[in-house]
């Protein structure tokens, strides 16, 4: 009885030793050395016995054929890059596990992809061959310099290229790409995207009131891309648009502001000493080689002084420039010279 039992136990031990399946142990962590950009991929296998074979395979595209790089210690691709073999295989043995190290030299973008280490078992269904996949690709992410969402949505996008569909004026600005392949520090590169577009104008407040008073001023403001900006007033009698010049009556200004994009400016028209014939329609036209756009304003008469700097509330800061910086809008801003108001 005991003999039978031990025979059974023995034979099962014998069997299990004989049929011990080859296995891939440990995850494959790509080691990419910056110097010469060489990748080392370790595939650790145990229980490898004839006729099993350790193979390194690269999946080029999801549809394309797999590229067989190596079989056991033999490299199957005879490629030489910069005087060195593109691929090499070095076998390290330690106790019962063997490391089949694939070396990929002179890495370029085309080397990015999925590398599979598999154990070919001639008599078994290929779906049961032990496999491990490692992805060799620098981790490249894109984001915007100003922290706003990317044109196609989201704040970050992976991949070496970033395509922008149907580019718009609001897409312009800095894009930063960060490549991280675990070699510290990650490399980053900034791309300045310029977009050429016809200036456009959207009034935030297209009508504004002011009392008739020689000491009051009205100011019309435009936030726009750098362009040739011309102001007009409609002549009520003709009615023709007459170009406004910088003179005793009108003050034309343009200003930079650090809150604006590099190609944006503030354009303002100040109407000094508001009188009866100042009421009416005003136009601001922005023009460049790609087109032109205009915004219309209306200045109308009120009983009381309008704006934050009127005598009763004098001292408050003018409420200029409260216009969205993201879109290019045109605002109609009333402001008064504090000095003039206080002189009353
Ligand atoms: C790969 O194996 C070699 C030899 O054992 C070892 O020196 C190296 O550190 C291993 N690399 C990784 C990423 O495990
Ligand atoms: C790979 O190695 C195994 C065992 O080490 C051996 O049985 C097999 O024949 C080898 N294959 C090739 C192609 O050398
Ligand atoms: C590579 O592997 C990743 C995940 O591991 C997968 O999403 C991707 O489709 C694979 N690419 C190819 C070409 O097989
Ligand atoms: C090999 O195996 C022995 C006994 O299991 C162990 O003491 C030793 O550290 C192992 N060596 C390596 C390199 O893993
Ligand atoms: C291999 O296994 C898969 C799933 O287990 C099965 O669909 C397929 O028919 C098998 N192929 C062969 C040749 O046995
Ligand atoms: C890639 O980089 C992003 C952002 O830095 C990070 O969240 C992600 O975990 C990284 N992925 C890998 C595989 O390193």
Automatic annotation (TrEMBL):
PROSITE patterns: IG_LIKE. InterPro entries: Ig-like_dom, Ig-like_dom_sf, Ig-like_fold, Ig_I-set, Ig_sub, Neural/epithelial_adhesion. Gene3D superfamilies: Immunoglobulins. Pfam families: I-set, Ig_3. One of its GO terms (cellular component) is neuron projection. SUPFAM superfamilies: Immunoglobulin (SSF48726). Residues 1-19 form the signal peptide. Residues 22-134, 186-298 form the Ig-like domain. Keywords: Disulfide bond, Immunoglobulin domain, Repeat, Signal. PANTHER family: CTX-RELATED TYPE I TRANSMEMBRANE PROTEIN, DPR-INTERACTING PROTEIN ETA, ISOFORM B-RELATED. This is Ig-like domain-containing protein. It comes from Mytilus edulis.
